[in-house]
Amino acid sequence: MTDEAAAPSRPRSYAKGVARRQEILDRAIEVFADKGAEGTSLRAIAEKIGVSHAALLHYFGSREELLLEVLRESEVRHGSSRDKQEVVGTMVRAAERNVGIPGFVSLYTSMLAGSLDADRQASREYFGTRFARIRERLAQLIRDGQHAGTFRRGVDPEAMAALVIAASDGLQIQWLLEPEVDIARSLELLERILEP
């Protein structure tokens, strides 16, 4: 077979690989949304989502890589529906959505806590970048609101952005421990701090 004859099959093979990886990722998201992944080995994850351990390793080099991809993919999926002009409202809607996927909230929380371990550099980078991006977006919205007169001028935008994120994540942890905690109601109190 000549190189010219073999070349057309490569794009198809690559496309199939990309599709298979996405299929595995989609299935993992479904499983983790319900049950989370705390303490689950890569082999057990493969079994839960219905693929071989070897296939999982082929597409995701480690458990951490798979779980981070699950977090990234979920953020992409849910990020498109966010109203980027709200400071607290975005977090309230995310919290309301997350009530229906406790396993995913548990996955996020355990991955965040694990990112503090020295050997979890990929997780540390993911969360550090994520928090920096969200803080900057929220701080800019606060500055814009202060300039427009819709937010109180004496509030430090960067500090308030960090507070909103901390409140959202902290309330979700409380909710995992005590499901009667009303995340949305508590987050809405932060809007009062921003009122002019």
Automatic annotation (TrEMBL):
Keywords: DNA-binding, Repressor, Transcription, Transcription regulation
DNA-binding annotation, residue ranges on this chain: 41-60
Record InterPro entries: BetI_C, Homeodomain-like_sf, HTH-type_TetR-like_transc_reg, HTH_TetR, Tet_transcr_reg_TetR-rel_C_sf
GO molecular function, one term: DNA-binding transcription factor activity
Gene3D superfamilies: Tetracycline Repressor, domain 2 (1.10.357.10)
Transmembrane segments: none
Superkingdom of this protein's organism: Bacteria
Stored SUPFAM superfamilies: Homeodomain-like (SSF46689), Tetracyclin repressor-like, C-terminal domain (SSF48498)
HTH tetR-type domain location: 18-78
Cross-referenced Pfam families: TetR_C_6, TetR_N
Protein name: DNA-binding transcriptional regulator, AcrR family
